[in-house]
Amino acid sequence: KQEVTQIPAALSVPEGENLVLNCSFTDSAIYNLQWFRQDPGKGLTSLLLIQSSQREQTSGRLNASLDKSSGRSTLYIAASQPGDSATYLCAVRGGGSEKLVFGKGTKLTVNP
Amino acid sequence: EAGVVQSPRYKIIEKKQPVAFWCNPISGHNTLYWYLQNLGQGPELLIRYENEEAVDDSQLPKDRFSAERLKGVDSTLKIQPAELGDSAVYLCASSKGLAGGNEQFFGPGTRLTVL
Fold first, then answer.
1. Which residues of A touch B55 (CB under 8 A)?
2. SS3 (DSSP) at B98
């Protein structure tokens, strides 16, 4: 059974800092990995999707990497801003399954 | 392009009452998902539809939960009767499937409170 773990559970940083969020998964036979952002009381916003054949994806100040063999992904946020404050969720889709398995998320607070 | 639409956004009911949630996916997305999200947890899949067919409902508590997607577009998720433990956020998502790399897009969710 696929399990996804996100560390740390919460992170507080000053504005302007570069930061890394971590995601690990137990079964490396994945189809893809998706990073989401969730604001309080809101749904999930898709940030980046990495297919199993890819090593990284970039969008603006965000860069996500994938190392399937070690079961790890990182989300790098450059020059953080208060507007980046949210919970970031990592989810993996297993090979042969449409189901996304989510981690519990990392709650990020960027202080002005 | 409109995103995934869900209604209502909030619902408060007493236990043992029925409740229904509605979802309209992104136009052209054949795959529709219902997820349950408890506080402090990631979403968990309840049911997945490919067009009007429920292809994965293994996590749906069928004694009280039901879902339908009659014309392969809108979907309704129902709970009858609701229990205190059903208080959670119910999220709907859609995807194009393989054509879109299976990227899933989520609606804002319905926050259910059962008293």
1. 98
2. helix
A46 interaction partners in chain B (CB closer than 8 Å): 103-106
Interacting residues of B54 by C-beta distance below 8 A, sequence separation 6+: B47, B48, B67, B69
Per DSSP bridges, beta strands A86-94 and A30-38 are: antiparallel
Token pair, residue A59, equals: 């969008």
- Evaluated on CA atoms A45, A89, A98, B36, the torsion sign reads negative
Q: What is the per-residue pLDDT across B38-95, written as a single tens digit (0 to 9) for each?
A: 999 999 999 999 999 998 898 899 999 999 998 889 999 999 999 999 999 999 999 9
Tell me the count of A-B CB pairs closer than 8 A. Answer: 55
Cβ A42–B56 below 8 Å, yes or no? no
Residue of B nearest to A105 (CA): B42
Q: Which of B42, B44, B105 sits opposite A89 (nearest CB)?
A: B42
Over chain A, what HEC string results? CCCEEEECCEEEEECCCCEEEEEEECCCCEEEEEEEEECCCCCEEEEEEEECCCCEEEECCEEEEEECCCCEEEEEECCCCHHHCEEEEEEEEECCCCCEEECCCEEEEEEC
Task: For chain A, say whether B24 makes contact (Cβ under 8 Å).
Answer: no
